[in-house]
Design goal:
The protein is mainly alpha-helical. Helix content is about 70%, strand content about 5%. It is built from 22 helices and seven strands. The strands form two sheets. It has a five-stranded antiparallel beta sheet with strand order 1-2-6-7-4, with no helix packed on it. A two-stranded parallel ribbon has the order 3-5.
């Protein structure tokens, strides 16, 4: 019995020893596993963006095992992670303690190279490989060949466009519908010369012609077509409306157009205009006729000489005396001032020996125009001061400028004219107050100051 009992005790001890060794082996294995770093471990780092204890930021060292998880594409801004979503390696993850949700954004290395990678991706998307280009060109060639071989397709394309011959016919019709200025003026003159045309139709024609003759070429073309004679006939019409409109067209055609000025003088336009001014006609007609006279004489010494020889200054003086409102007076004085200034300017330029022979010829032509002598002889030294009696500042200014321009030949008569001396003294007192008012509001060189300077200049000459 003793041997048996001993053997049982030995077996029990061996079993205990084996169990202890097995437990020790399992414990070492667990410790070994715990000592290793998990592939999906998260490292907690300090939050540097002011979240304090409310937020914790974690860096994902390695990519999690995705499996069936949805991988989020982080951006530069924090975005909330939904349950079951995974993040790429290198991303920043934090736990928002206020909301209890995880948030993710790009890591520093990702943000550093994001712009360059994004640009490279876009360039890769926009670029084409040589093989792709060859395939595209081959497809285009095949489409073209298919279209040439397919008559039905060609017919469908041709049906969308009109035939060339039809287009040519339409263009020819358009050319027939478009009128040139020459054709328009010819049509208007034919209508004006038609005996069946009414006065209203002729007035409408003259209005259109006045618009067209502002162009130098059109005015010259009108003369070559015989239109000047028709306009002069309108000046001799018994209808005042036709007279006014004809004078308006003539004055517009003459403005700054030497060729038309020569044709007008040769056609007797100056005598017709002076006759219209001398006859008893309404004011609105005389205004347009005076406009035509001024346009004819401006920068044309030949016409100025004929104007003086045909009694033009005498006609103007009678018109000046008859005008009570001052409108015609002002226009006449302005025209005389322009003619005097124009001649003086040419004479001053003639002193320059460097000018060409054509200018010398113009100086010679102006020297034959004895304008200021005619002004003295026809009594204009006494007439122009009467315009100072007007209450209009513009009328007074024009009169003062003309008086200064005429002073070389009229100075003696100015000094003997007591009414002129009194008017200048009275005007100076009046404009002194106006100048003071201008200075109060900050206009040191205003309009009234200019008038004062004209008065002072004239008084100095008369001393």
């Amino acid at each position: 019995m003793r041997p048996t009992s001993c053997r049982n005790r030995r077996a029990s001890s061996s079993c205990f020893t084996f169990a202890f060794l097995l437990l020790l082996l399992n414990f070492c294995h667990i410790a070994s596993i715990a000592g290793q770093k998990s592939e999906s471990a998260l490292t907690v780092v300090e939050n540097t963006e002011g979240g304090g204890a409310e937020e914790e930021e974690m860096t994902v060292d390695e990519e999690e095992e995705e499996g069936e998880l949805e991988v989020v594409k982080p951006t530069a801004e924090w975005q909330t992670l939904k349950p079951g979503q995974a993040v790429p390696a290198g991303s920043h993850v934090r736990l928002n303690l206020q909301t209890g949700q995880r948030e993710v954004r790009l890591g520093e290395e990702q943000m550093k190279y994001r712009t360059q990678e994004h640009r490279e991706q876009e360039e890769a998307q926009l670029s084409f490989s040589p093989e792709e280009l060859k395939r595209a060109m081959k497809k285009i060639k095949e489409d073209l060949n298919t279209g040439r071989k397919d008559p039905e397709q060609q017919d469908s394309v041709a049906s969308k466009f009109r035939p060339l011959e039809e287009l040519k016919k339409d263009m020819a019709q358009l050319d027939m519908l478009v009128e040139t200025d020459f054709q328009i003026m010819k049509r208007l003159l034919d209508q004006f010369n038609n005996s069946n045309s009414t006065t209203e139709q002729r007035l409408s024609i003259l209005l259109e012609l006045e618009y067209m003759v502002h162009q130098v070429d059109n005015a010259q073309t009108l003369c070559s077509m015989g239109g000047l004679q028709l306009i002069l006939q309108g000046l001799n019409s018994s209808d005042f409306r036709l007279q006014e409109s004809s004078a308006f067209v003539l004055g517009s055609a003459l403005s700054s157009n030497p060729a038309v000025q020569v044709k007008a003088v040769e056609s007797g336009a100056l005598q017709t205009l002076l006759t219209s001014l001398a006859t008893a006609e309404p004011l609105h007609v005389k205004k347009k006729v005076l406009f035509a006279v001024a346009s004819l004489l401006r920068h044309f010494p030949y016409a100025q000489r004929h104007f003086l020889s045909h009694g033009g200054l005498q006609v103007l003086s009678e018109l000046f005396k008859a005008d009570g409102g001052g409108i015609l007076r002002t226009r006449i004085v302005t025209m005389l001032y322009d003619l005097i200034s124009e001649k003086e300017l040419i004479s001053q330029l003639g002193l320059d020996s460097a000018l060409d022979a054509s200018h010398d010829e113009r100086v010679r032509q102006y020297s034959e125009v004895s304008l200021q002598g005619e002004l003295l002889e026809k009594g204009w030294c006494r007439l122009v001061p009467q315009l100072l009696e007007s209450t209009e500042h513009d009328f007074r200014e024009k009169a003062l400028r003309a008086l200064l321009a005429m002073s070389p030949v009229c100075l003696d008569q100015y000094r003997s004219d007591s009414s002129l001396l009194g008017s200048l003294v009275s005007l100076r007192v009046q404009y002194e107050e106006m100048v003071q008012s201008e200075m109060i509001i900050g206009e040191e060189n205003g309009y009234f100051s200019e008038i004062m300077e004209l008065i002072d200049a004239l008084q100095i000459k008369m001393k």
